[in-house]
């Protein structure tokens, strides 16, 4: 998944139902013991979420088998068991949402009429795995009182540059003019209107079929810069770039159109589904733009990924934003303690909910700086956000670490901040 942005057993049915019921009654008891902006275009469903800083999510990444499945080619029963174990872990960690990556490389974890089955399931792109992972995830998450947000990557086609390795009927092979090789990968060209319409149709098929609670994009729009390489969209720019001051402005407009159009189409397809984006945590540095954050990051989403995330919030095209604030408190170039208040101010008076993306994967990693060796660092993040009125929750990257909890950082978060079970969203 976010290689640059992130630096990359089944319970029986009756037991699951019982666990969900117990979770609901535990919440009700906790609530009783405590004593018991509407958006315009498009209309927001965010207002139905309960108040307080209460969104507790985890990303469940499937690209390259990052979190699930443990390896391609497992039997359907084994894959299902691993998936349900992740959902059970979310409940045990007192979370209430799972963000499940269902379109990692222009392929699908459901029977899509637009794109082939993902190779992460069987090892062969296009091969039917014999079951429906997304349908199962939605049903079983709801049974456990969890929200299930379907996470899509709009433009990434493959983590290699050889179209011949794609399924024979893959749209990228049928339409080779849609594809740009860059940085050792294949991408759909965001500058082509037919590409933008196709990727929307492909993603909305899942929204139409399943009762997903959210549609989720991460930080990949135009690809992260690769030194010495350029993204070859010359023909598309010549055809569609007239009227823009430069190519960067045209590229930003292409991504703005994707986000704006998806916002309307999601509400048309499933009105209660919320639309969220998890961008790289720095929109622009203040040295570049006075509206930017007090940071000195090497990547700025506005300039490098052509993703104007601040505008998406201000225009209310999205229901929630989860900036990836994957740095420790005090980090000179991008201080967590400076980015939280910046994002807090960005969302104020918009009705867009702010959840903070947390780098659980760094906790205890010997390659990370000293603060990440302290199991309490992540808990300090949540304590800091309590000062800010717009922060409504956190999402942890990622499921593998939520389960393994290398140095006990997640357990510390639960002990310090999640004393009661999470409130079921449904």
Short account of what is shown:
With about 425 residues, the protein is an alpha/beta fold. The chain has helices at about 15-35, 75-90, 120, 135-145, 170-175, 195-210, 235-240, 245-270, 300-305, 310-315, 335-345, 375-385, 400-405, 410-415, and strands at about 55-60, 95-105, 145-150, 155-160, 180, 185-190, 215, 275, 320, 355-360, 390-395.
Task: Give structural notes.
The chain is α/β, with parallel strands linked by helices. It has a single domain, classed as Alpha-Beta Barrel (TIM Barrel), CATH 3.20.20.80. It is built from 14 helices and eleven strands. It has helices at 13-34, 76-92, 119-122, 133-143, 171-174, 193-209, 234-240, 247-269, 301-305, 309-314, 336-347, 377-385, 399-404, 409-417, and strands spanning 55-60, 97-103, 147-152, 156-158, 179-182, 185-188, 214-217, 274-277, 320-321, 353-358, 391-396. The strands form two sheets. It has an eight-stranded parallel beta barrel, surrounded by six helices. Strand 1 (55-60), helix 2 (76-92) and strand 2 form a beta-alpha-beta unit. The two termini are 29 Å apart. The model is unreliable at 1-52 (pLDDT under 50).
The order of strands across the largest sheet is 1-2-3-7-8-9-10-11
In round numbers, the mean pLDDT is 90
What share of residues is helical? 25-40%
Note poorly predicted spans: 1-52
Total E-strand runs: 11
Determine the CATH superfamily.
Answer: Glycosidases
Q: Architecture, CATH level 2?
A: Alpha-Beta Barrel
- Under CATH at level 1, the class stands as Alpha Beta
How many structural domains in the coordinates?
A: 1
Distance between the termini: 29 Å
